[in-house]
Amino acid sequence: MTTLRTRALGLAVAAGLLAALALAAMAPAAQKSKADRPQPGKRILYKTTTDAKGNKVELHLHLFLPEGHKATDKRPAIVFFFGGGWVGGSPSQFYPQAAHLASRGMVAMAAEYRVGKAHGTTPKECVADGKSAIRYVRRHADELGIDPDRLVAGGGSAGGHVAAATATITAFDEPGEDTATSAVPNALVLFNPVYDNGPEGYGYDRVKDYWRRISPLQNIRKGMPPAIVFLGTKDKLIPVATGKAFQAEMQRVGSRSDLMLYEGQGHGFFNFGRGGGESYTRTVAQMDAFLTSLGWLKAADAP
Length: 303
Known about the structure:
By secondary structure, this protein is α/β, with parallel strands linked by helices. The protein has one domain (2-293): Alpha/Beta hydrolase fold, catalytic domain (Rossmann fold, 3-Layer(aba) Sandwich), CATH 3.40.50.1820. It has ten helices and eight strands. It has an eight-stranded mixed beta sheet with strand order 1-2-4-3-5-6-7-8, sandwiched between helices. Strand 1 (42-50) and strand 2 (56-64) form a beta hairpin.
């Protein structure tokens, strides 16, 4: 019976992927040029904090809303965190993915968070801001028109670390923040994520004094939300072995973990405008199919 259910789910996901792939390939012309990538409908302040020098920092969520969205809606939502080695980067990295999901009925957001170059901060502050963003969205679900129990954390590279950390890391909350609201998302969408910070992993030299407390791979526990991970087989920063180790550990605790390997692709292969857009289109379609399999998106109709 389990095998039949698994096969049925696999067929449903495959059908959804084909439809989503067709939908993603029909991206509007505005998304075909990197210079003309979609723009958020509005920005909202989710946190006021300080940089390493004590200067005031305001952090915003860049929102993409479905057509006709109302505050009384109960839609699924996703918060994307940009990559950049915890040093730089921009929320605009995930504008195309956010726009796609908004077109599919989700409330999609790209989050600002403190980084080393602009704020003199460390990976600890990146994680603190990620957790604050998830808490803010969940706490303001009624105002945002979302379902707080269908909240996704997504991100790429160091932003993938931030997203994965919201689900795994119990340390590094913002001092004084009300932690009564959970920062743990209900699903993860991770693009070549930095989720092993151990001696053989990424960024160990910067987090070695506290790496076990900040490395997602070493903090997987029972009850982890389902995840989909996209990884290139030629990624020089995140080895395939790390991706498989994360998947195996997730499965060991009984959680779903889909690992999508892209043959011959390096770090950042998924980005909009990279390599002619084929990998972007495929990853968006697989992200769409994953969320559809959770029941959070309606099945896409292939043209």
